[in-house]
Amino acid sequence: MLAFFxxxxxxxxxxxxxxxxxxxxxxxxxxxxxxxxxxPRFNLYHSIDGSxxxxxxxxxxxxxxxxxxxxxxxxITSLSKDGRIMEARRLFDEMRDPDVITWTSVIxxxxxxxxxxEARRLFDxxxxxxxxxxxxxxxxxxxxSNKISEAEKLFHEMxxxxxxxxxxxxxxxxxxxxxxxxxxxxxxxxERxxxxxxxVVSMLARCGRIEEARKLFDRxxERxxxxxxxMIAGLSKNGRIDEARLLFDRxxERxxxxxxxxxxxxxxxxxxxxxxxxxxxxxERxLPxxxxxxTGLIQNGDLRRARxxxxxxxxxxxxxxxxxxxxxxxxGESEEALKIFSRMLSTNGAKPNQGTFVxxxxxxxxxxxxxxxxxxxxIVSKTVYQDSTFVVSALINMYxxxxxxxxxxxxxxxxxxxxxxxxxxxxxxxAYAHHGCGKEAICLFNEMIKSGxxxxxxxxxGLISACSHAGLVEEGLxxxxxxxxxxxxxxxxxxxxxxxDLCGRAGRLKEAVDFIERLETKPSARVxxxxxxxxxxxxxAKIGKLAAKKLLEVEPENAGxxxxxxxxxxxxxxxxxxxxxRLKMKDKGLKKQPGCSWIEVRNRVxxxxxxxxxxxQSKLIYSLIRDLHSKMKKVGxxxxxxxxxxxxxx
Length: 650
Description:
mainly alpha
């Protein structure tokens, strides 16, 4: 079942917010992959923004009169582009009289290599030769390093500015959420080009100010294909898909990105048939076209058609493979996700990236596939992703879910001392929560605070969950109050569900109900499910009936809800009510899926379901279970059999 990796020797194996491998269609980030770790949202694929982040440009044409200087400039530019910046610096230092192009090339090279401080030291030298290109490169370098204040200060100090300088600073504001500052600068520009207009239109559309974006778009003196595409993407993202289609049909010319943007818009708005129709009509398709369509299908729960399209792809890249793997993981088909990963490795084409490893390790976590997880860990250790905090956090989660808490903690303690971030801390806290180690989770939380990290909403999900599993009710309530009073974090349904679970497990069901009734938002299925589970544990039929009723309003076809309510009635001796619930469940044609567990022994997976006698050693297994029950009774254990007869109906 899970032994697919064993057809290849482990020694031959070659470490999401996913964000490096995928196009963001619904929002930002992963990933942030942190979303993968935080919440089961599916956020993927190629950016269709018209705006572009500040890039460090090297001089493309050298008008130097001195041939020797020109040759040195060419070599310095070439070395810098190849990342050999120290060699470029040595060549620069050996030059007698470097010109402004030389200075700009070396400064830009340091910026490109992430050495912003070294670039600034060169820039500030008394003998430095600078022009508007040099100044703009330095401003762009600060933006690239997320130092917007330094970029802003330098921009205002510039003796001369051209339209590229203005565009660079406006884009810097846009990237860092300074929408009003960007608009102020845009209005002050002495001259604008199409890039200036595209930047602000894309920015406004991205942040939901779609009316302002449309007005600016209509005012544009000239538009290029990026202008039209940015506006189409913005309208689609804000739910105005029909308006986006009208604009798409009016486009004087389209490129493949324009088609992809329109297909993405239909997918975002759950209009898959129109997306597929447009996909079929495309005059040409590139890899992003296929990936965009597959992503849209998966986001709308159509995994079957997504797989069919995936199989038909003439060529696949890492995004294609990662999308399918993530889709299967999110649909609960983790074994199929592992099979696709195995196929990916065997094709010798696309190499796994950070997002791939995060997703496939999630599959191992879901299946408790320790052997497979360890093999993937070996693959990770031979890649540049072994130091990625996202991948290491996914490994910690995998080892924790597979019962290897000591290994998970060792990875956290030994391998991440110098690179721990909030994701890492959240991962190890969640690991202890999963194992019911509430006090240890609290100690880790306190250690995290002392280390200077500010907890986020995901931290509190893990922390309150840990308190719930360990019975630390007062501590859990205290941390929930901290979260609410903080004000800087969004309190979401995960927190509400954890708090209800905390009270439910402790038998404080009335408090849980009072809390739910005070919620300003409509309680989710998770919240009512947590309450129903607490009622099942503590045999509270009155509140259980309420919780089941509310839960069935949200999920009317959930067989588990009927089962829990029936069990609650049975445990309180209300047999007629229990039978009535079971009968209603049968009338609806609902049937609870039997529980399944498995164990891996000597490279073979043994799976078991309730009442199963298909295993070759079932007689021996049941003999051992009877012996174990006998020993449990001798030490005073009394099984709860009040609704046992119901578990074997049909």
